[in-house]
Design brief:
This protein is of the alpha+beta class and 440 residues long. Among the domains are: 179 residues, no CATH class; 103 residues, no CATH class. 57% of the residues lie in helices and 16% in strands. The protein has a five-stranded antiparallel β-sheet. Helix 6 packs antiparallel against helix 7 and helix 7 runs parallel beside helix 8.
């Protein structure tokens, strides 16, 4: 990770506690308002559920009494009139007392889906057809059924007094009946929900009210908080980047592009570097000037050394040629063929060394090494010239252009000389093939 990124993260982390404190204060204020709204909702939900429970439990009790009375005496009109008066006061609520044969003993006939036979006094509540049905089982398949539409339940459950906008649902198991919609909810609106059980075969009331709204001032203050937090971190990073990081990066590029013999130019490190970085650039420039002077001295010394080395090789070559001439001079005065051959053999070895020094002297200007093909070619020519005609020597060369240093060339020259010398001594008319190939 680059230094600028590290610095930005450090500044963000350093300023984060201040941002968190301000954010905590905003959240705490909103939470207090939410708690107050939740308390009001809980009171409203308890009032609504209590009212609904009171009405339904009273009706259930009367249905049970009426069912028992009509089972005992189907002609009991007094019990039927009491129930008719009770349900008639509720407007759209309906009821029916049905015997085991399906005959309506009291109330009005209506169809309820899933009307299974219930055991005596068994209570079954179910959400059907935008309302709630409540059934009570009797003897021999008889039952009492009541139906409450959603509008009626909404009217019963409405809290008293001035209440805020709310939503209301009646829940039975996995089914849900919407009694009142909570209007005006947008993408940023929140809602608080409270669920209260009615203890009537799993029925429950769920009430919801709008939560504390996320208003424009809250959004603006939160956004400004984040913007100021990031702006403070970026301003700090920008100042450090201008004064330190960017000049250091440019100075590093200048030092990285430095070549021996040059002077480091630090004028391109920016217009506003820190004083310490400017002094560091001047130090690098002074060091590069010192190195430039030393490089010039070393180059001059290398030129002198090259000239001296060339002179040494030149003199060694001349001395070896003088030695070869002396050997040739003494060979002419040899009294026997064996002595003349011995002188010739010594002369060939001296010529091998002279060939290496002569080629090394010729290659000193470019300092690439010795061309092995020219060394072997000249060596083979000298051996042919000094070999006796009776030897019938033949030498064939197949050499690739290979460069070697002086030590390797000297060793190769002596080895080839000895091998060719051995071949001439062992076999008259020897045909020698010398092949040199570059390695991988």
């Amino acid at each position: 990770m680059q230094t600028g990124a590290k610095l930005f993260l450090i500044l963000v982390g350093a300023l984060l506690p201040l941002a968190l404190i301000a954010l905590f204060i905003t959240i705490q204020t909103t939470r207090t308002a939410n708690d107050q709204s939740r308390e009001r909702l809980r009171a409203m939900a308890e009032e609504s559920s209590g009212t609904v429970y009171t009405v339904l439990s009273s009706h259930i009790a009367q249905l049970g009494q009426g069912l028992a009375a009509l089972e005992a005496n189907p002609a009991d009109s007094l019990a039927c009139n009491r129930m008719a008066g009770t349900f008639g006061s509720q407007g759209s609520a309906r009821f029916a007392i049905i015997d085991g044969a399906g005959k309506v003993l009291c109330g009005e006939r209506f169809t309820v889906a899933g009307a299974a036979v219930l055991s005596p006094s068994q209570l079954r509540a179910k959400i059907v057809d935008k309302g709630v049905s409540i059934r009570i089982g009797g003897h021999e398949g008889a039952s009492a059924v009541a139906y409450y539409p959603a509008d009626l339940l909404n009217t019963i459950a409405r809290p008293n007094g001035f209440v805020p906008e709310y939503g209301l649902d009646l829940i039975a198991g996995d089914d849900r009946l919407r009694l009142r919609d909570l209007a005006g909810t947008g993408p940023l609106d929140r809602r608080e929900t409270v669920r209260t059980d009615l203890d009537l075969d799993g029925l429950a009331i769920e009430m919801s009210v709008p939560g504390t709204p996320i208003t424009s001032p809250i959004i603006i203050s939160t956004v400004l908080l984040v913007v100021m937090w990031l702006a403070a971190a970026m301003i700090g990073w920008f100042v450090v980047d201008i004064l330190l990081i960017r000049p250091l990066r440019r100075l590093r590029a200048s030092v990285g592009a430095y070549q021996p013999g040059e002077v480091i130019d630090f004028t391109d490190i920016g217009a506003m570097p820190a004083q310490e970085i400017r002094e560091l650039g001047e130090t690098f420039r002074d060091i590069s000037r010192t190195v430039q002077v030393h490089e010039a001295d070393l180059a001059e010394g290398l030129v002198r050394q090259t000239k001296l080395t060339r002179e040494v090789h030149h003199r060694v070559k001349n001395n070896l040629q003088v030695i070869a001439s002396l050997i040739n001079f003494h060979a002419r005065g040899a009294k026997s063929a064996e002595a003349a051959e011995a002188y010739a053999s010594i002369q060939r070895r001296v010529d091998a060394l002279a060939v290496v020094h002569r080629n090394h002297y010729a290659e000193m200007e470019v300092n690439r090494g010795l061309e092995l093909r020219s060394v072997i070619g000249e060596l083979a020519a000298n051996i042919r010239a000094t070999a006796p005609e009776s030897a019938g020597l033949g030498i064939t060369l197949e050499t690739e252009p290979v460069l070697v240093n002086q030590d390797v060339a000297t060793a190769i020259a002596f080895i080839l000389t000895e091998i060719i010398e051995l071949a001439m001594n062992c076999m008259v008319g020897a045909q020698i093939r010398i092949s040199v190939k570059a390695g991988p």
